[in-house]
Sequence to fold (243 residues):
Amino acid sequence: MFKISSEAVLKKYIKGYLISHAHLDHVAGLIINSPADSSKTIYAITSCMEMMQKHYFNGETWANFGDKGNGYLIKKYHYQILNPEEETPITNTTMTVKAFPLSHVNPFESTAFLIKNTDAYALYLGDTGSDTTEKSDKLHLLWTAIAPLIKNKQLKGIFIEVSFPNEQEDAQLYGHLTPNYLLKELHSLSELTGKNALKGFKIIITHMKPPAENFLKIKAQLKRQNDLGLEFIFPEQGKRFEL
Ligand SMILES: [Zn+2]
Ligand SMILES: [Zn+2]
Fold:
């Protein structure tokens, strides 16, 4: 084991930021660490980028480290708008990204990012509710777009949220998923890929909300309801895993 300093991770290894939506639990770290950061690109869809410029990097609540918007422009960060479903290169890497809109308390938009590196893909979803609770078709459209990549084994895994255990009432979900709703969505996906294609497929569970006892509930519920034979991965801070 070799150790890399947090400064090196921030300045050297992180090549850019893909922002799924501008809620503070997703951007607070980026904002607070911006004075110590190196120059790089921030990628987001238009509505999210406008919120970053209006509420945070605006010369009032925080200095404007961006290259657009209000106040003195420090220009450490270059803002790169992502047009939905258009492949955009990620600067200083061999990767590209394609953005797909998600519904996170309809009509508020969050984003999924399909990352491509040579022939392999990974899919990350920002906060999202299920199509049922959001009265939306955003996840159905995303599953339709990525199903072929699962069938031909190019997609290596999906990062998706489960914020609450099944006990949470629908009215208290605020655009998030439970194990029940995640499994319901993955069953819709399986109708497009065939059930066999999802056996052993990696689903990385993100965004479990405290208290810690809920983490155990969510893990147990996912395990019990895993009739598709998926491989659920629960990432831990600082621990490496591979797709
Ligand atoms: Zn959110
Ligand atoms: Zn969140």
Summary: Residues 21, 23, 104, 127 surround zinc ion (ligand 1) (CB under 6 Å).
